[in-house]
Every structure is written in structure tokens, then in C-alpha cells.
Design brief:
There is one protein chain. This protein has a 5-stranded antiparallel β-sheet with strand order 4-1-2-3-5, with no helix packed on it. It has 223 residues and is α+β, with helices and mostly antiparallel strands. It has a domain of 100 residues. It is 58% helix and 21% strand. The radius of gyration is 44 Å and the shape is elongated. A hairpin with a 1-residue loop joins strand 2 and strand 3. The protein contains 5 helices and 5 strands; from the N terminus they run ααβββββααα. The termini are far apart.
Length: 223
């Protein structure tokens, strides 16, 4: 059970990491998303091209809980070319007051009326689609694992289990024999070392005895 929980958490983290930040946004509180609707000829303060966009406010508690409809705004054209079909978004925007909207409409810079903005089902519930898909994959994975695990248990017959036990016993016997041989070899090495030391001691005693006899003979000759 603990292993399955770890798998769920790791895969959930992986899926949340690969989802674009504007789709789920690890956040708490309110967060704004700017959806681009249509390209315009209106220029920004730095003479940049602007898109007619719609600001949507989402309430987050780690994941999006609900969406509050927002207002029409202007945003930088960026790389997406204001393509609504690609669900283009922007990180910044310029607010649009009612008076400005009417002025731009009078100058034919904005449509009259303004285009209707509607979020797609995927934009509203993207994170839940991802999590639902992950849950389905996880359940399939668990089912396959259980199936193969059950088949493995069925395939193991009593005869095979008995053979496994015999092999394990033989392996333990071989290990014990190898350990015994190692101990015997160590004992033989200790005996050889002891014999070498005894031989050295005997040679030293013989040398001391010979030196004592030589000294005795020298004393006798002096007398």
C-alpha cells in the first residue's frame, strides 16, 4: 500500500510539472489569466502591437476551484499572434475603461459590439482532465500488475516450491562447507607459524649453548 502511495505521489508530481503553468498554477488565492481574442491596430506605450484580450480571475487552493468572469483588456501581441484558437495567453495587460472602449470603437479600432469571450471546457477543467487521465492510467497499471502477480502465484506448483527448498538447503550446506574449509586453512596457517617460531627458538637455544661451551673451554685453557 505504501509503495502504491509513493507511485501515486510521484506520478502526480510529474504530471503537474509538465502541465503549463497557466493551466494549473501552483497558487493560493486569486490569480489572473489573460486570454487573447483578436489582433488590433492599437499601439502600446512603447509602440508595441496589442491584442484585444479578456481577463479571467481564478480562485486557487493549490488547484483551481472556481472562475470569476473578468473584463476586456489589451495585451502585448508576443509570439502567439493573438490567436484565440490556440488559447493564446499573456503575462501582462493594459486595463480598458468603458470610455476607452467607446473611443476605439468610434475609430474602428475595436469591433462593435466586442467579440463574445467564452472559455473552452478544456481551459476551465484542464487540470481535472489531466488528473482524471492519470487516475485511469494508474488503475490500468494496478490491474495489469495484479493480473501478472496472480498468474505468477498460480504457476508456482508444490513440486517447484519443494525443489526451491532443496536448492536453498544445498546452498546453505555449501556455504557452511566453504566456511569450514576456510577455518581449517586458517588453523593450518597458525600451526605452520607456530612450528616456525618453535624452530627459531630451538636454534637460538642451541646457539646460546654452543657459546656457553666455548666460554667454558676458554676458561679451562687459561687455568
Amino acid at each position: 500500500m505504501k509503495n502504491r502511495l509513493r507511485i501515486v505521489l510521484l506520478m502526480s508530481f510529474f504530471f503537474l510539472m509538465i502541465i503549463p503553468s497557466h493551466v494549473y498554477g501552483f497558487a493560493f488565492g486569486l490569480e489572473e489569466t489573460i486570454y487573447q481574442i483578436k489582433e488590433t491596430e492599437i499601439r502600446g506605450p512603447d509602440n508595441q502591437e496589442l491584442c484585444l484580450s479578456y481577463k479571467v480571475t481564478q480562485k486557487y487552493f493549490f488547484l483551481p476551484l472556481w472562475i470569476t468572469e473578468g473584463d476586456y483588456v489589451l495585451s502585448n501581441k508576443d509570439y502567439c499572434n493573438c490567436d484565440r484558437e490556440q488559447s493564446c495567453t499573456s503575462d501582462s495587460y493594459f486595463p480598458l475603461e468603458d470610455a476607452e472602449i467607446k473611443k476605439y470603437q468610434a475609430s474602428n479600432l475595436l469591433d462593435t459590439p466586442l467579440p463574445v469571450f467564452e472559455m473552452t471546457i478544456f481551459e476551465r477543467f484542464a487540470i481535472w482532465f489531466f488528473l482524471g487521465g492519470f487516475l485511469v492510467l494508474y488503475l490500468i497499471f494496478c490491474a495489469i500488475k495484479e493480473r501478472f502477480s496472480g498468474r505468477s502465484d498460480e504457476d508456482s506448483s508444490p513440486e517447484q516450491e519443494a525443489e526451491i527448498e532443496v536448492l536453498e538447503a544445498e546452498l546453505e550446506a555449501l556455504k557452511a562447507k566453504a566456511e569450514l574449509e576456510a577455518l581449517e586453512a586458517e588453523l593450518e596457517a597458525l600451526k605452520a607459524e607456530n612450528a616456525s617460531k618453535e624452530a627459531e627458538l630451538e636454534a637460538l637455544e642451541e646457539k646460546e649453548k654452543a657459546e656457553a661451551e666455548a666460554e667454558a673451554e676458554a676458561e679451562a685453557e687459561k687455568k
